[in-house]
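=== RUN LOG ===
request id: a7f3
mode: sequence -> structure
chains: 1
length: 315
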Amino acid sequence: MILIGSRALALRNKDLLGRAPLDFDFVATKAEFDNWLEKNRGLVNPTEVYFLSEYNKWIVKGSSILEFEITTPGHSSELLADLVYNDPESIETPFGHLPTLDLLFTIKDSHKYKKFESPRGCANFYKTALDWHSMRDAGAKVRPEYESFLKLREKETYTHKLPKLNVSKQDFFDSDKNGVVQIYIHDDIHRAVAINDKPAYEYYLKDGSEVLTSKKKFFECSEHIQLCGVIEEALVLALERSCLPHPGVWTPEYAFHFALAKVSSTICGGYFRAHAFNNLFKALNSYPKDYLDKFQKAVKDGKVRPFNSQMKTGT
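=== RESULT ===
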């Protein structure tokens, strides 16, 4: 068997894990799982044993929670097993074979953008992000020999679709298509929460586009503008998806945390998502905590206009 996840990271380098691991994650053949369960049933005292076909995992709940991803031909689990068992840097432990730190980092990298919808999912996103940043800062990397495994693992993990950006602004913000009811003009909200003299995205809009941004222009901007771009997207999302349609349900702080996690995973893609994820904790430490007050003042001053049917047609 192969031990992965937080337990494996704690064994590799306990200083990189900022919390106590709560469960066990294994990769094993079905025969290895059956054998393990037979030998350890009395130790774990399972109250539940069930199979999640969507993830190809057996779950054992008892004195501990254990997940066993079943090695399957043609899947990333098969490539992982080959990498671990054929690597002299792998370590054999009483819990199973322990992958290298770089391979543990590659596994973490393969699901850092995983879709979530609930506060619990958001918490898991930040847990993954914290581990990823800790490992990266310690020098962990995706080795060239891990690339094929990473690509297949990502393909198995990312089954959601990203928003389509190559459309008009009207179509992009059409509530009938994206399920989001607009209360105020989107661009007005951006201007209301802008950290500088104008919204950061205006510095790197693609020529002739109302929605698409230019990667070249983005990386020609200062690091400050780049970070402001990430923060402002999360601020607007927090307002449009949380604070305005559901006032008082979440605090402005949590609404921003949730929105930033979305910007860094499923709302955006490509270079912007990667930049947001890579600078996640910088954004958390520097966003304006009074953004909701600032927005409400802009509404009161008439700087943020309400959205209505006329706005849709441009009249």
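=== NOTES ===
The chain has two domains: 2-157, 169-313.
DSSP finds 16 helices and seven strands in the chain.
=== END ===
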